[in-house]
Protein backbone atom coordinates (compact mmCIF):
# COMPACT_ATOMS: atom_id res chain seq x y z
CA UNK A 1 0.00 0.00 0.00
CA UNK A 2 1.73 3.09 -1.27
CA UNK A 3 5.12 3.46 0.42
CA UNK A 4 4.18 1.18 3.30
CA UNK A 5 4.70 -2.56 3.02
CA UNK A 6 2.04 -4.70 4.65
CA UNK A 7 1.91 -8.45 5.12
CA UNK A 8 -0.67 -11.00 6.18
CA UNK A 9 -0.09 -14.57 7.37
CA UNK A 10 0.24 -16.86 4.35
CA UNK A 11 -1.88 -19.52 6.03
CA UNK A 12 -4.86 -17.15 5.72
CA UNK A 13 -4.28 -16.41 2.01
CA UNK A 14 -5.88 -18.76 -0.50
CA UNK A 15 -5.02 -16.89 -3.69
CA UNK A 16 -4.07 -13.56 -5.22
CA UNK A 17 -6.32 -12.36 -8.03
CA UNK A 18 -6.31 -9.55 -10.56
CA UNK A 19 -9.12 -7.09 -10.04
CA UNK A 20 -12.27 -7.63 -12.05
CA UNK A 21 -15.37 -5.51 -11.96
CA UNK A 22 -17.40 -5.60 -8.76
CA UNK A 23 -21.12 -5.89 -8.38
CA UNK A 24 -22.18 -3.32 -5.79
CA UNK A 25 -24.18 -4.58 -2.83
CA UNK A 26 -27.03 -2.23 -1.87
CA UNK A 27 -26.87 -0.93 1.71
CA UNK A 28 -23.52 -2.64 2.32
CA UNK A 29 -21.09 -0.97 4.73
CA UNK A 30 -18.66 1.54 3.17
CA UNK A 31 -15.72 -0.85 3.41
CA UNK A 32 -17.46 -3.42 1.15
CA UNK A 33 -16.48 -2.72 -2.47
CA UNK A 34 -18.87 -5.33 -3.81
CA UNK A 35 -18.97 -8.96 -4.81
CA UNK A 36 -17.14 -10.85 -7.55
CA UNK A 37 -17.41 -14.33 -8.98
CA UNK A 38 -14.14 -16.24 -8.80
CA UNK A 39 -13.95 -19.85 -9.94
CA UNK A 40 -17.70 -20.25 -9.63
CA UNK A 41 -17.92 -18.78 -6.12
CA UNK A 42 -19.36 -15.40 -5.15
CA UNK A 43 -16.88 -13.58 -2.91
CA UNK A 44 -17.34 -10.36 -0.94
CA UNK A 45 -14.51 -7.86 -1.53
CA UNK A 46 -13.57 -5.34 1.16
CA UNK A 47 -11.11 -2.45 0.95
CA UNK A 48 -8.21 -3.13 3.32
CA UNK A 49 -7.11 0.54 3.29
CA UNK A 50 -10.61 1.57 4.39
CA UNK A 51 -10.63 -1.00 7.19
CA UNK A 52 -7.22 0.19 8.39
CA UNK A 53 -8.55 3.77 8.28
CA UNK A 54 -5.83 4.98 5.90
CA UNK A 55 -7.94 5.98 2.89
CA UNK A 56 -9.31 4.09 -0.08
CA UNK A 57 -7.55 1.72 -2.46
CA UNK A 58 -7.21 3.30 -5.89
CA UNK A 59 -7.75 1.11 -8.94
CA UNK A 60 -4.60 0.56 -11.00
CA UNK A 61 -2.99 -2.20 -13.04
CA UNK A 62 -1.20 -3.30 -9.84
CA UNK A 63 -4.33 -3.52 -7.66
CA UNK A 64 -5.04 -7.06 -6.47
CA UNK A 65 -7.57 -9.03 -4.45
CA UNK A 66 -6.18 -11.28 -1.74
CA UNK A 67 -8.59 -14.15 -1.16
CA UNK A 68 -8.38 -14.87 2.56
CA UNK A 69 -10.13 -17.00 5.16
CA UNK A 70 -10.96 -15.18 8.42
CA UNK A 71 -13.12 -16.68 11.17
CA UNK A 72 -14.53 -19.23 8.72
CA UNK A 73 -15.47 -16.60 6.13
CA UNK A 74 -13.83 -16.49 2.73
CA UNK A 75 -13.48 -12.93 1.45
CA UNK A 76 -11.42 -10.75 -0.84
CA UNK A 77 -9.20 -7.96 0.42
CA UNK A 78 -8.61 -5.18 -2.08
CA UNK A 79 -4.96 -4.07 -1.87
CA UNK A 80 -2.74 -1.68 -3.83
CA UNK A 81 -0.52 -4.55 -4.97
CA UNK A 82 0.73 -7.99 -3.97
CA UNK A 83 4.40 -8.32 -4.78
CA UNK A 84 5.82 -11.39 -3.14
CA UNK A 85 5.65 -14.09 -0.53
CA UNK A 86 8.24 -13.50 2.21
CA UNK A 87 9.31 -15.96 4.87
CA UNK A 88 9.39 -13.87 8.05
CA UNK A 89 11.46 -15.34 10.86
CA UNK A 90 9.65 -15.02 14.21
CA UNK A 91 12.87 -13.66 15.72
CA UNK A 92 12.73 -10.67 13.35
CA UNK A 93 9.23 -9.61 14.45
CA UNK A 94 9.09 -6.78 16.98
CA UNK A 95 6.17 -5.31 18.87
CA UNK A 96 4.60 -2.46 16.92
CA UNK A 97 4.76 1.15 18.06
CA UNK A 98 1.47 2.89 18.98
CA UNK A 99 0.93 3.79 15.33
CA UNK A 100 2.86 2.68 12.26
CA UNK A 101 2.23 3.81 8.71
CA UNK A 102 -0.86 5.65 9.95
CA UNK A 103 -2.35 2.37 11.21
CA UNK A 104 -3.44 1.92 14.82
CA UNK A 105 -1.43 -0.56 16.91
CA UNK A 106 -4.46 -2.79 17.55
CA UNK A 107 -4.50 -3.85 13.87
CA UNK A 108 -0.81 -4.79 13.77
CA UNK A 109 0.69 -8.13 14.86
CA UNK A 110 4.20 -6.73 14.67
CA UNK A 111 6.81 -5.18 12.42
CA UNK A 112 9.77 -6.84 10.76
CA UNK A 113 12.83 -5.35 9.09
CA UNK A 114 13.17 -6.97 5.67
CA UNK A 115 16.22 -5.83 3.70
CA UNK A 116 15.76 -2.08 3.26
CA UNK A 117 12.10 -1.85 4.28
CA UNK A 118 9.85 -2.26 7.27
CA UNK A 119 7.13 -4.89 6.85
CA UNK A 120 3.95 -4.18 8.82
CA UNK A 121 2.22 -7.45 9.74
CA UNK A 122 -1.57 -7.03 9.72
CA UNK A 123 -3.73 -8.86 12.26
CA UNK A 124 -6.75 -9.74 10.10
CA UNK A 125 -8.83 -10.97 13.04
CA UNK A 126 -8.55 -7.48 14.60
CA UNK A 127 -9.06 -5.56 11.35
CA UNK A 128 -12.31 -7.43 10.75
CA UNK A 129 -14.09 -7.69 14.05
CA UNK A 130 -16.67 -10.41 14.70
CA UNK A 131 -19.58 -8.02 14.12
CA UNK A 132 -18.27 -7.03 10.68
CA UNK A 133 -17.70 -10.66 9.76
CA UNK A 134 -21.26 -11.55 10.78
CA UNK A 135 -22.59 -8.61 8.70
CA UNK A 136 -20.70 -9.91 5.68
CA UNK A 137 -21.92 -13.48 6.19
CA UNK A 138 -25.50 -12.21 6.32
CA UNK A 139 -25.02 -10.04 3.22
CA UNK A 140 -23.61 -12.97 1.25
CA UNK A 141 -26.44 -15.27 2.33
CA UNK A 142 -29.17 -12.71 1.53
From TrEMBL:
Instruction: Name one matching Pfam family.
Output: CheW
Q: Which residues form the CheW-like domain?
A: 1-133
Looking at the record's lineage, which domain of life comes first? Answer: Bacteria
One GO BP annotation is: signal transduction
GO cellular component terms, A-Z: cytosol
User: In this entry, which stretches build a coiled coil?
Assistant: none
What's the protein called, per UniProt?
Answer: Chemotaxis protein CheW
Organism this protein belongs to: Filobacillus milosensis
Amino acid sequence: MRDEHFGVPIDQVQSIEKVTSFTKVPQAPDYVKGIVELRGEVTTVVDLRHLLEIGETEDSSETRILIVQVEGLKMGLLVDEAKEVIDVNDDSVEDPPQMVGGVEKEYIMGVSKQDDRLLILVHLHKVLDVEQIEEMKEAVQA
